[in-house]
Design goal:
Blueprint (H helix, E strand, L loop, with lengths): L10 H6 L20 H9 L2 H6 L1 H14 L5 E2 L6 H5 L5 E3 L3 E3 L18 H19 L5 E6 L1 H10 L7 H9 L1 H25 L3 E6 L7 H7 L1 H14 L5 E5 L6 H5 L5 E3 L6 H8 L4 E6 L8 H15 L4 E5 L9 H20 L1
Parallel strand pairs: 1-4, 4-5, 5-6, 6-7, 7-8, 8-9
Antiparallel strand pairs: 2-3
The protein binds coproporphyrinogen III (CP3).
Length: about 350
């Protein structure tokens, strides 16, 4: 492992391990992105995947929000779509539409087009970006690595892009259950190696984004989602027990108990979940992360501060990492992001003194 500067702020790592701290750590999903003028300036000069694939640019964009706000973590600037790309599919980032696959997996036969990637070769740019970013962060805050979860990646690979109902991907689960499992298993194998190598390149915490988990009902979640999430946590922990693992099972209210039984240290809640009820289900089996509605950032600063205070009170002072319930939106006002972060600092300290 490369030699890295020592860490000045390890609040998020201690909280993720279940320790009590004197303030609640805070970061924001999609904290690097289009709501920041300094990000848009880079995107005027460079294509999205150029930024992702050029370690110095990825590092610069990763650090932009850390320079602007007193955040407790950086998350590598990359995308979950690099895994389907490494597996042989072409992904284009279409402005206004998001990631698009010109040739998705419309039938199981098409799985023949997938390759078993040489991770170092196909995803070496991500590892290099992690190493460069960790050096450039100079120990200010920990660096989070991430991957898409197998089901969320399958949803895009079969559907060909974003969709309201993901009917093609969900139809696969019923029409081709065995092929679906084979596909999910292949993705899982890649994700496990990818995450393990991210740690070796410099990632200090890992998050698995299952942004489309909420498309499942309880039955298909148990069959096509949970086992692969579980397997990822077991295998990554086996390699790196010291690195906190976060899972973001968006909208899976019924899945919290089962996820609390897995090896994830942290469960990230979206804003539809009630922090107190989630805590009752999870108990002390996991730290919780979240979950302010990203749209609360459109509120006037005073109203936003009250929302933050209410959210913090719901989670309580310990075993909580403050975040949004999903990512920053392109038209968010950066000043309001600053209000959110400052309000977490202020209220979470105050909560511990009363
Ligand atoms: O959080 C961060 O700051 C790190 C960077 C990050 C991006 N994508 C950058 C990005 C992370 C963690 C992701 C993960 C990701 N990508 C997820 C899981 C998290 C989630 O939001 O649910 C998903 C589903 C994707 C797929 C994806 N990539 C979509 C749907 C889009 C389009 C979004 C949009 O609003 O247009 C992307 C593109 C993307 N990924 C952008 C960024 C900053 C915007 C691209 C641009 O600059 O034009």
């Amino acid at each position: 492992m490369p030699d890295f500067p020592s860490l000045e702020n390890d609040l998020i790592l201690r909280t993720a391990r279940g320790e009590s701290t004197d303030r609640t750590p805070v970061w924001m999903m999609r904290q690097a992105g289009r709501y920041l003028p300094e990000y848009r300036a880079i995107r005027e000069e460079h294509d999205f995947f150029d930024v992702v694939e050029t370690p110095d640019l990825a590092a610069e964009v990763t650090i932009q929000p850390v320079d602007r706000f007193p955040l407790d973590a950086a998350i590598l600037f990359s995308d979950i779509m690099v895994v389907p790309e490494a597996m042989g599919l072409t992904v284009e980032m279409v402005s206004g539409k998001g990631p698009t696959f010109p040739n998705p997996l419309s039938t199981p036969d098409e799985m023949e087009r997938l390759v078993e990637p040489d991770i170092d070769e196909a995803l070496g740019h991500v590892f290099e970006a992690l190493t460069v970013t960790r050096q450039q962060l100079e120990g200010r805050v920990p660096l989070i690595g991430f991957s898409g979860a197998p089901w969320t990646l399958m949803a895009y690979m079969v559907e060909g892009g974003g969709s309201k109902s993901y009917r093609h991907a969900r139809a696969w689960l019923y029409e081709h259950p065995d092929a679906s499992k084979a596909l999910l298993e292949r993705i899982t194998d890649v994700v496990v190696d990818y995450l393990i190598q991210q740690v070796e390149a410099g990632a200090q915490m890992l998050q698995v984004f299952d942004s489309w988990a909420g498309l499942h009902g309880p039955e298909t979640f148990r069959t096509f989602c949970l086992p692969y999430l579980d397997e990822i946590a077991t295998r990554v922990k086996d390699a790196h027990p010291e690195v906190p693992l976060v899972v973001f099972p968006k909208n899976v209210h019924y899945g919290l108990d089962a996820l609390a039984e897995t090896d994830y240290d942290v469960i990230s809640l979206d804003w539809t979940m009630d922090p107190k009820s989630a805590r009752e289900v999870v108990g002390d089996r996991a730290v919780l992360q979240g979950n302010l509605d990203p749209c609360a950032l459109y509120a006037a600063p005073d109203a936003l501060r009250r929302e933050v205070q209410h959210m913090l009170a719901g989670f309580g002072p310990h075993q909580h990492i403050a975040n949004l319930g999903h990512g920053m939106l392109p038209d968010h006002d950066p000043e309001h992001a600053g209000v959110f972060v400052d309000a977490v600092h202020e209220h979470s300290r105050r909560m511990r003194t009363v």
